[in-house]
Specification:
By secondary structure, the protein is α+β, with helices and mostly antiparallel strands. It has one domain. Strand 2 and strand 3 form a beta hairpin.
């Protein structure tokens, strides 16, 4: 039982607290979604760097066997078991082993990459033309929407 000195919160005060908590929750969800999207883009670029490392081994092996290689495809890297199947971070599916994703090499030095995902790619330059992305300029800003 309440005495004359005890007071509870009014309905308006409780509603104000609920509204404030709702606003904070919306802001948090939006911030978390931005962080998740940025990390997916970073994971896509990391997949490209993994392809670069695998292609370097492939190119060095080709030079030892005195075979020239210029274009090293994702499919070739998978068949040589130099790379695990790549999981596209946006669609969460394994990328199909095709010749559309590749690394360009000159001798044992890898120069540029073209990596095609389901939603994003690293094969389009700033003017919208299909072109390989040099590893020296590779970043999440290089990602373009398909």
């Amino acid at each position: 039982m309440m005495t004359e000195n005890e007071r509870g919160y009014t309905l308006v005060e409780l509603l104000a607290v609920v509204v404030i908590l709702g606003i904070i929750a919306v802001i948090a969800v939006l911030a978390i979604n931005n962080i998740i999207e940025k990390s997916r883009k970073q994971a896509f670029v990391a997949n490209a760097l993994t392809m670069k490392s695998s292609a370097q081994y492939y190119a060095k092996d080709a030079m030892l066997q005195e075979k020239g290689t210029n274009k090293i495809t994702y499919k070739e890297l998978l068949e040589a078991q130099l790379i695990e199947p790549i999981l596209d971070p946006h669609s969460k599916t394994v990328m199909a082993p095709e010749d559309t994703s590749y690394v360009l090499a000159e001798g044992e030095k890898v120069l540029s990459i073209c990596l095609l995902g389901d939603e994003y790619n690293l094969c389009t330059n700033d003017s919208g033309e299909k072109a390989e992305i040099p590893f020296s300029t590779l970043s999440i800003q290089s990602l373009k929407k398909n």
